[in-house]
């Protein structure tokens, strides 16, 4: 897909981190961009800085997502690009474990598992389904109607202790990439997924410096955390390279996560 002012894009989780870096790269390429995010203050500030449209959206709420698409399309037209970066976790819990002090046994809080799946997996699919339904109304450009990039995680393949919900949700994104690409192959819409490793994002900045240093040292090469701009460059390659379809690509400096 050739990028330019005749193309509209939506980036979920677009107010910060990987999403904002990708939105910025798309705007730099001339694309009309809408940011979906729950953080209105950050989203409005970021959108103003790059000349994008902000839509207050919670990907776990169907009506909110529908309203976001309506707002974005009213401002920029029907999107041909969707980048799904919205996601996160709701704490680390073992499937079953013992309290370190009391030795009391507790099972994983299933409501936290459900929330994690709702946010990462179902939230991503909700946006894909609604976006592609809109893309089907478009005439093809150079044989294609649209391109989608999803965000999974290295945890989809190397989930650590306490990450069962997050790993399962991200593995679900990996697992649905090829079937969705096949669902949409007759309509000229491509779908790919990036599996980031340890990235230097606002969420990671909450960690103590020594924790960040240890994480960076655990990457085989280069021994640092990934930069959001590196994610953005891969996302744009997936969007612009017309033969990139149905793929799940790790972007992680060759790290393979240890059990803990």
TrEMBL record:
<comment type="similarity">
    <text>Belongs to the short-chain dehydrogenases/reductases (SDR) family.</text>
</comment>
<dbReference type="InterPro" id="IPR036291">
    <property type="entry name" value="NAD(P)-bd_dom_sf"/>
</dbReference>
<keyword id="KW-0560">Oxidoreductase</keyword>
<dbReference type="InterPro" id="IPR002347">
    <property type="entry name" value="SDR_fam"/>
</dbReference>
<dbReference type="Pfam" id="PF00106">
    <property type="entry name" value="adh_short"/>
</dbReference>
<protein>
    <submittedName>
        <fullName>SDR family NAD(P)-dependent oxidoreductase</fullName>
    </submittedName>
</protein>
<dbReference type="InterPro" id="IPR020904">
    <property type="entry name" value="Sc_DH/Rdtase_CS"/>
</dbReference>
């Amino acid at each position: 897909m050739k990028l330019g002012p005749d193309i509209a894009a939506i980036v979920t989780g677009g107010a910060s981190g990987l999403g904002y870096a990708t939105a910025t790269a798309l705007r730099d390429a001339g694309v009309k961009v809408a940011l979906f995010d729950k953080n209105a203050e950050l989203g409005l500030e970021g959108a103003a800085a790059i000349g994008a449209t902000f839509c207050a959206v919670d990907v776990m709420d169907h009506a909110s997502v529908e309203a976001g698409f309506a707002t974005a399309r009213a401002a920029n037209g029907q999107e041909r690009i969707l980048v799904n970066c919205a996601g996160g976790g709701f704490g680390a819990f073992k499937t079953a474990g013992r309290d370190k002090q009391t030795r009391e046994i507790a099972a994983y809080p299933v409501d936290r598992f459900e929330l994690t799946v709702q946010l990462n997996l179902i939230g991503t699919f909700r946006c894909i389904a609604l976006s592609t339904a809109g893309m089907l109304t478009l005439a093809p450009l150079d044989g294609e109607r649209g391109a989608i990039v999803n965000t999974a995680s290295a945890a989809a393949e190397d989930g650590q202790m306490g990450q069962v919900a997050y790993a399962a949700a991200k593995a679900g994104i990996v697992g649905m990439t090829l079937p969705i690409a096949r669902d949409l192959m007759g309509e000229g819409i491509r779908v790919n997924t990036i599996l980031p490793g340890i990235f230097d994002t606002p969420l990671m900045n909450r960690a103590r410096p020594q924790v960040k240093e240890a994480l960076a040292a655990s990457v085989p090469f280069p021994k640092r955390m990934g930069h959001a701009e590196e994610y953005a460059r891969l996302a744009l390659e997936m969007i612009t390279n017309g033969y990139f379809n149905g793929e799940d690509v790790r972007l992680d400096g060759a790290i393979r996560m240890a059990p803990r």
